[in-house]
Each structure stands twice: as C-alpha cells, then as structure tokens.
Write a structure and sequence with these properties.
The complex is a heterodimer of chains A (458) and B (548). Chain A is an alpha/beta fold. Helix content of chain A is 46%, strand content 13%. Chain A has 17 helices and 14 strands. In chain A, the strands form three sheets. Chain A has a five-stranded parallel sheet, with helices on both faces. Chain A has a four-stranded parallel sheet with strand order 3-2-4-5, with helices on both faces. Chain A has a four-stranded parallel sheet with strand order 7-6-8-9, with helices on both faces. In chain A, helix 8 links the parallel strand 6 and strand 7. Chain B is an alpha/beta fold. Chain B is built from 24 helices and 14 strands. In chain B, helix 16 links the parallel strand 10 and strand 11. In chain B, helix 2 runs antiparallel to helix 20, helix 14 runs antiparallel to helix 15 and helix 15 packs parallel to helix 22. Chain B is globular. The chains are: A alpha/beta (458), B alpha/beta (548). Chains A and B meet through strand 1, helix 2, strand 3, helix 3 and helix 4 of A and helix 4, helix 5, strand 3, helix 6 and helix 7 of B.
Chain lengths: 458, 548
C-alpha cells in the first residue's frame, strides 16, 4: 500500500492540500506560448520555476521545451526584476532570434509587483527589441487559479497583443482549442478542414510538441499559429471557444476588442460534445457537414452500440482539468456509465454545477468537487469503490492500492506515450478513448474470471 | 555515426570562441571565465581556475533549478518518515512530488512512508496579502491529525520570504503544541544561484534540529555514515548490500533510503564517507567539529572506484580482519563486473562522452566511461563550486560574493559531552602515510585529460555548439536537455533520473551501466534517421530508371 496513510474517513481540511489535482499558472502559460510559431516562452522569476516547468512539460511531451528565465536572485527580489528582464530580452534576441518572446510572471515577480509592459517598453526604447519583433506578456501568479487558467491568460494575451479588428468579417472562424494535446489541436483542424471551414486555431502546439526525428534539432519547429493568423483573428465570423476555463477569456477579449462573436462550447470529447462542435462549425461558417464526417460519427456510435453491455452502469472516478472533467462526464453518461466521483484541482463552482447537470442522466449520484485534491479523491474511492479511474499518472498510486483499472488521461501523463500522438477529441478521438476504456474493463474481466468463464469471444 | 568514430577532436579553444560569438558582449565576457580548456595539474598540483557558483545570465537557457529544489527535492526528498509541507502556492510542492526517483524500502506494509504524499499550503491571493502563517499553522495541525508523524519539516518558497512569514516561529510553536519535532527551512527559490544553496540550507537545519538527538549507538564494530547518496534508481540499496557483506555498519545515509532515526543517531558513527561532495560537505565538516567524526571522500560509481572506496573505509579502521573481508568481497564481486565490461568494451572503446550534470556526478561517471574505454571530452557541473572542479585546496581563495553570503554559516562548537575525536594526530599521520587523507577532495579537473573542455553552468547554446563540433557518441545531462540532444541523433543518458534505469552504483550497478551505455551508443535506431528516399542524390532519376 503505497498510499498507506490515506484513511477512508474524511476529516475536514481548511489549510492543507495533499496530492494536488492541479499545478500552477505559469506552466500553462509556457505551454500555450509554445503554440505560437517562432515564440520563445520566458519565465519572469527565479530559475526553479522555469526548470520545473520545462522538466514537467518535457516528461509529458517527450520533446524539447525551450524557455528562458529571468534568473532572480535575492537582489532582484528586493530591487525588482527590471534589470533581469531587460538583460534577458537582450540575450534571447541575440541567442535564439525568436519572432516573439512570451513573458509570463511567477509568484515571485507578481508579489514584488513588476510591471512587465513598462519594463518591455523601456527595453524597446533602449533598443533591446529588434524591429518587427514582439514581447508579449501574461500575469500568471501561482497563487491564483491553476495551470489551466495560466493557459487561458497566455491565450488571451495573444488576442490582446495581436488581434486586429477588420472592417469586414471574413468567412473563416477562430477556434480556441482549450488545454488539450497537440494531437487534439491537429484533429480539431482536420475536422474543420473536412467541413471546408477555414479556421485559425490558437494556440496550436501541433507540429511543435510532436516534432519528427530528423537528426537535427529545430529550435522553432514547423508548427504553431503564425502572427499573421493571430492578427487575422479580429476579422473573422465567429470564435468557437472550446472548454470554458481555458478558452473563454480569450474569446471574450476578442469579442470586446474586435466584435467577433464568441460561442462557448465544451471540449469536443465524446459523441454529443463533438456533435455540438461540428454543428457549431456548420452553422457559424454556413457549410454542410460532409458525408465523411457523418460516417466517422456513425462508426463511433456503432462501436458504442456494439459494446454497450460492457459499459452500462459501470462507475467511474474522474480526476483532471475542469474542462476535461466536464466533457468526460458528458461522454461517460452517454455511454451509460456512471461518473461516481469527479475532482478537479482548479477552483470554480461553475464546473461543479456543469458536472452535476451532465451527470443527472447517469444511473446514480455523483460526488463532485472543484478545488479538491487527489487525497480527497482517493478517500471517496475508498468509501465507494468504482470500476474504473480516469486521471493523470499520479492516479496510478490510487489505482494500484485499490486494485482498480486506470485510463491515463489529462496532464501530466509521465509514464506512458500516445497522448501526444493520438487525439481524444472528435469522433475518432472518442473511438480511441472508448477503446482504452474497454481495454481496461475487459482486461480486468479476463484477469478476474474463473477458468470456467474465461471466454474467447467477448 | 560511423564516420564520427574517426572524427578528429576539434581545437577546444576554437570551440570556446565559437560558443562565445553569439552572446551579448557582457555575457560573453563572463562566460569566457566559466569555459575552461583543461590542463593536467602542474608541479604544485594546480589546474586552471574556473569561474563557478556564479549567477546565470537572465534569458540564457540553463540546466539549473532553484534553492527549494536543492533543499526539498535533493536532501529531504529521500527521507521516508519526515513529513514535509511546502509552504507556498501549489507549483513547487507539485513539481517536487515523486519526480526524483528516490527509492525507499520500508520494513513492512505498516512502516511509515510519506514519499507518495505531497503536502502544501496551496497559498491563495489572500494568504499573500494578509500573510500565510495562520494557514501554515493550521496545515501543520491537519497534517498531524491525519498522519501522526514524529517529525514535520516546513519548506519555504519564493513568496513566503517576500511577505515575511516567519516559518521558524511557526515551527517552534507547533513543536510546542504537538510535542513532535517540527523544523523549518528558509529555502526560498531566489536564494543563491542554483540548487546548491538549498543543499547548504538543508544541511544546516538537519544538523541543527535532528543530528545528535538520539545517543543510541547501533551495534557493529565499524560504524559509518554515507553522505551525499540519494538512492536514485536504488543506488543506496546496492551500497547497503556491499557494506553489509563487508561487515560494515551503516548508521545513517544522507539521505537515500533514510529515516529520521538514522539522522538522529548519525553522530554515533566513527566515519563519514562522502559521495556527493557538493551537496553535503557542510554536514561532514559540521559533524567533525561538533562530534569529532572525520570524513573522507569516496565514490561508489564505477567498479574500480567502488573497490577503492571500500578499501579506504577498511583502511580507516586499521583492522586486518576487516581489510581481509573487504578484499574477499571485492574478489567475489569483481569478476562478474569485469566479465560484463569485457563483453561490452569492444563495442564502446574509443567512443566519446560528455557529462553536464549535478555537482559530483559529472566527475564520478567519468570512472564508468573509463571502464568502458570511452573518453570524456567535455564535462561540467550544473551547480558546482570551484572546489568541486579544482579541489578543496582552493577553498581559502574562493571569493565570497553576495549570493553566498545570504546562506547562513552555522557556528559549530565541539559538543562538551559528546565530542569524541576518532583519530589522534598519530593515527591521522599513519593513515596519511598510507594515502588516506581526511577532509580532502581533488576535484574533477585533476582527473580529466589535457585539452578537454570544462564548462560550468552550460547553456543550451553552448551544448549545441559542442554537439556540432564534437559529435559525441553520448551526452549525459538531465530531462530538460534530453530530447533536444536526441533530435541531433545523439543519445542522451539522464544522470539525474537515470532514464528510469539503475542502479548504477557499486559492482552490480556498474554492470548495469555498461549494458545501458552499450545499448545506447550502439542502438540501431539512430541509423534510421535518413529515410531511403533521402539517402541518394537524385532519387527521382533513379526511380524513373528503375521503372524503365
């Protein structure tokens, strides 16, 4: 029992977090910044933040994560980080020649109150920023929100700094994909293309964090949204914001700044959420859904009907990011399964409301907590065991102790591959997620079956 | 990669110049002092001077982490039964949760093991504005209610120092209230220039609050502590196995597979054997001053180094029986390692390695590469000081700068009741004549070849220059460097987490390492980088010809 000290009885905790189900804002900002082509993320604080964020993102994506730090020591913490950031901007343009430096703050630089736009403006006056290059920023103190809100803040910064209002709204749409994997961003683009919709997806880490092995390290891989595309976001018909926590701040900013109407949707995970996404694309762009997409949908539905008996009534515990747990709840309910315990570390009552609403159709009640941790999640599972856990790698300790199958999903996944390469959004993504869920459940059935009922055909 | 085998080594001075070219002038001037072309020790035993333990220039991609990482991650991380609470926003506690592969072996399922738990105050905006002491106090109470530990450690993160939370006062109050040992570490990330400051801070507080609390002396004739071994991938298990086989009692390990009780009794040992000089030489010095326990430098990385270290430990005790037993163990263990080396060597000999990692590993692992017949052409530390490079002889001339002055130096006095000198001047002289010197470390550069490059706090840019100019067969660093190096078609061996392999310490560990390096430098996957259709000069023409 690795988590041998976790008791089933729940004791009220008001101050102590144990085994968090979230991490801090700057890492999300760093990830989002990597979704701009030729962008260099920069962490304004002490070295540890940047080192930790690069390490964690590297372990999850198994790709180089290039980012800088202002390397605060005690002096900068007392006198402010202006000198450090100015030096950093100078060194970065010399050494790495990015088109954009995306600065995010840390709890340190936020607490001392560094004013990034003012520092950047001085650096520009001092000639430290070459012509045609940009330094953008997001405020991401770690004592607010989570990695998801940090992602949202940097995504919003893309709008604040680059979106240009267009006199006429073009035919294309913007899609803000949410805090998802590179493969998901690629799949969202594939679906849009399949419908014939011209879409700017931002941020876009596909092509950046799934770069090929070529015998040569490209400091700026081929992928990422271009500045030109970001500028054009203000002159589009609509913005589809997928996942409200990660995407709505940017979508709302774009609406306010350029008058592009924002449509808020769930992450397109599973049949119904993908239906909504596809339908929204159809309506906003005024296109017809091609047969190929309907076929994909039908194939997913076919798999679900074929295997429905193995899913019906099974209980699942889900831990993850707010937009993810909302979408997963919807998917599980559509499969006839029961989300029994749902935890996200990111605070926000709206998520609890949405999960309850979606789980209302499930065969049984749901425990849900936003701003919870994996310790509580484990205690809930101890009190009422489930058939399956869906969550990040840290859940493997709970899964082992309680002998419950685990489907790894979310951030971070440190001990398996696939999440970077294969989407879980869209109809195809749902097929993969369904395959993983069924594999886990059926492997368990096989493992536990007495010899006489160990079946060849299932 | 085949072509690289006969690749002549470039002129290191030219490589250095190529590295400096792209930096802004001020940064280049500073880096020039941190990149050194090595030469063998002169008559006085001196190697070139290197600028180390200096600030990283902002914006330059570095391997380094922070003080909190050095304290919580490195020193406290491997102890299984001290409950550690990170006081700060969620990130620091999250990232230091199970990510360093510190293995530990409990006695049974009921034995205490807090390692899979990450505890933190998850400070919110109101805690930053109004102060977080109240929340920390409550968090300690809640942790005590849930876990009933015998000791709780509190670690500070950046904002805690800024807002002035007095974590030491909270620790004292909670110690009083709960009746258990509660102590705190002011290991804010911004202190110092790297993880190194955190090691020092951790050493100080463990020494002040735990070492010497329990005078129970473990049984055994030859009692030692191993300092600076963190049990990544089970290294400490292999060292423990060897010591036990030799009949040497391990009183405490700092801090691989360690317990609170071990720390409390560490002063009852008669010798401290230091592995990672950088992270823990402070503890060795302080234990000597207060309790009279001398320290020697050892190295269990590499079969020959392991044999040598066991002999040095035995030599210290001056007991023929122990010396004989150690020789017997070496004789039993060596043949299998040598068999493994002999099998691998034809495939590894002549290949080139580079090591940029840690504060001793970049030195220690050169032994293993030597045993494979491989040459280390460039190396450097992530958070070393001059003495780690040039040897402790330079200590008196190391300038103390503002960043080092921030770190408390404890005033340590001999303990009136328990100071017990283990070696008189006579014994020290006798052992010295036999080649066993105390409190001495020669550093990395003395053991590196002429014209190798020694680079402190290497940056990503410099790494890329090295890769292009040298085409090493293997590069050793950490997870942040791994995939960028590998995209160049050069395998990277992680020497922090061991790429989830190991152990690499001791005899069995050496054999493991040989096999892993053989696999990596000879892996066929790197030969597949160029697809067949890009291998020929005019594929289209050929294709037409083939069809015709």
């Amino acid at each position: 029992m690795l988590l041998r000290h976790t008791p089933a009885e729940i004791q009220e905790r008001s101050a102590l977090t144990i085994n968090p189900a979230k991490t801090c804002q700057p890492i999300g900002a760093m990830y989002a910044a990597l979704g701009i082509h030729r962008c260099f993320p920069h962490s304004h604080g002490s070295q540890g933040c940047c080192a930790y964020h690069r390490s964690m993102l590297t372990r999850h994506y198994k790709e180089p994560i290039m980012a800088g730090t202002s390397s605060f020591t005690e002096g900068a913490s007392v006198f402010g980080g202006m000198a450090n950031l100015t030096q950093a901007v100078d060194a970065i343009f010399h050494l790495y020649e990015p088109d954009v430096i995306a600065v995010h703050t840390t709890c340190l630089s936020e607490t001392i109150g560094d004013d990034i736009p003012q520092i950047v403006s001085s650096a520009r006056d001092a000639g430290k920023i070459p012509e045609g290059r940009h330094v953008i920023h997001a405020n991401t103190p770690s004592y607010v929100g989570s990695h998801v809100t940090g992602f949202a803040a940097m995504t919003k910064a893309m709008v604040d700094y680059f979106a240009e209002p267009g006199r006429e709204k073009g035919s294309g749409v913007n899609i803000i994909p949410g805090y998802v994997e590179p493969a998901d961003m690629a799949e969202i683009q594939r679906l849009a293309r399949a419908l014939g919709v011209e879409a700017v997806v931002f941020p876009d880490t596909s092509g950046v964090l799934d770069a090929p092995q070529t015998g040569r390290h490209e400091f700026y891989p081929r992928g990422g949204v271009t500045l030109e595309a970001l500028r054009s976001t203000g002159a589009r018909r609509a913005t589809l914001a997928l996942g409200s926590t990660a995407s709505s701040p940017a979508a709302r900013a774009l609406e306010a700044k350029c008058g592009v109407p924002a449509l808020q949707l769930d992450l397109p995970i599973g049949l119904l959420a993908t239906d909504q996404f596809v339908d929204a694309l159809r309506r906003t762009a005024g296109v017809a859904v091609p047969e190929a997409v309907s076929v994909e949908r039908g194939q997913l539905l076919d798999l679900i009907t074929d295997m429905e008996q193995y899913l019906h009534g099974r209980s699942v515990a889900v831990a993850g990011d707010p937009d993810q747990v909302v979408a997963l709840t919807g998917f599980l309910v559509s499969l006839g399964m029961r989300p029994a315990h749902v935890v996200t570390g990111t605070p926000g009552k709206e998520v609890e409301r949405r999960v309850r609403e979606l789980a209302a159709g499930a065969p049984g009640p749901v425990n849900v907590k936003a701003g919870g941790d994996l310790f509580l999640f484990h205690q809930w599972i101890k009190q009422e065991p489930v058939d399956l856990i869906i969550g990040n790698t840290y859940c493997k300790y709970i899964a082992r102790d309680e002998d419950i199958p685990l489907v790894r999903h979310g951030f971070p996944v440190l001990d398996r591959i696939g999440h970077v390469a294969f989407p879980t959004v869209g109809y195809r993504g749902a097929m993969r997620l369904l395959e993983k869920i069924l594999d886990a459940l059926l492997d368990r059935q096989d493992r536990d079956a007495p010899e006489e009922s160990f079946e060849l055909v299932m | 990669m085949e072509a690289a085998k006969t690749h002549a080594l470039p002129d290191p001075e030219a490589v250095k110049q190529a590295m400096l070219e792209k930096f802004p002038a001020k940064v280049a001037k500073k880096r020039a002092k941190q990149i050194v072309v090595n030469r063998a020790p002169d008559a006085a035993g001196r190697v070139p001077e290197i600028h180390a333990n200096a600030r990283t220039s902002p914006g330059v991609i570095t391997q380094r982490g922070c003080t909190y990482a050095g304290c919580k991650g490195v020193i406290l991380g491997p102890v299984r039964d001290i409950l550690t609470i990170t006081h700060g926003p969620v990130g620091c506690g999250f990232y230091s949760w199970l990510t360093r592969r510190n293995q530990t072996r409990t006695q049974g399922p009921d034995d205490v093991n807090y390692m899979p738990y990450a505890l933190m105050t998850d400070m919110q905006e109101e805690d930053i504005v109004f102060g977080g002491e109240k929340k920390l106090r409550q968090a300690v109470r809640e942790a005590y209610e849930t876990f009933r530990p015998q000791a709780i450690a509190l670690c500070a993160t950046c904002p805690v120092g800024l807002i002035g939370d007095d974590i030491h006062a909270v620790a004292r109050e909670m110690k009083e209230e709960l009746g258990i040992n509660v102590f705190a570490f002011s290991c804010e990330g911004y202190k110092g220039v790297s993880q190194s400051a955190g090691h020092h801070i951790a050493n100080n507080q463990v020494f002040k609050h735990v070492v010497g609390l329990d005078d129970t002396t473990p049984e055994g004739e030859y009692r030692i502590n191993i300092l600076g071994e963190y049990n990544i991938g089970g290294d400490a298990f292999e060292i423990e196995r060897l010591l036990e086989k030799c009949g040497i009692t391990l009183v405490a390990s700092f801090s691989g597979n360690a317990t609170y009780e071990q720390f409390a009794r560490a002063h009852t040992a008669d010798l401290n054997a230091i592995m990672c000089h950088r992270s823990i030489n402070y503890m060795g010095d302080m234990m000597e001053k207060k309790f009279g326990v001398p320290w020697i430098k050892v190295n269990f990385i590499g079969a020959q180094a392991t044999a040598k270290s066991l002999r040095r430990i035995a030599q210290y005790f001056e007991d023929p029986e122990l010396l004989a037993r150690v020789e017997q163990v070496i004789a039993e263990e060596l043949p299998e390692v040598e068999r493994a080396a002999a099998e691998v060597r034809p495939r590894t000999a002549g290949k080139r390695a580079m090591l940029f990692v840690g504060g001793s590993r970049a030195h220690h692992y050169q032994e293993l590469f030597r045993e494979l017949g491989m040459e280390t052409v460039a190396a450097g530390y992530e958070f070393g000081h001059r003495d780690d490079y040039e040897g402790r002889a330079v200590l008196p001339s190391v300038k103390v700068d503002a960043d080092s002055r921030n770190i408390e130096e404890l005033e340590v006095e001999p303990d009136p009741a328990r100071f017990r000198p283990r070696t008189g001047p006579e014994k020290a002289a006798r052992l010295g004549a036999g080649g066993l010197s105390f409190a001495e470390y020669q550093g990395m550069m003395a053991e590196m070849a002429e014209k190798t490059l020694v680079i402190d706090d290497i940056s990503h840019h410099e790494t890329e220059v090295l890769l292009k100019k040298y085409r090493p067969h293997i590069f050793c660093a950490g997870i942040k460097e791994k995939y960028a190096v590998q995209k160049w078609g050069i395998p990277l061996k992680q020497l922090h987490s061991y790429d989830y392999g190991g152990p690499y310490a001791g005899f069995r560990g050496a054999a493991n390492f040989y096999r892993d390096i053989d696999r990596m430098v000879n892996s066929r996957v790197w030969t597949y980088v160029t697809p067949p259709w890009e291998a020929e000069e005019a594929p289209e023409a050929k294709a037409v010809y083939a069809c015709g």
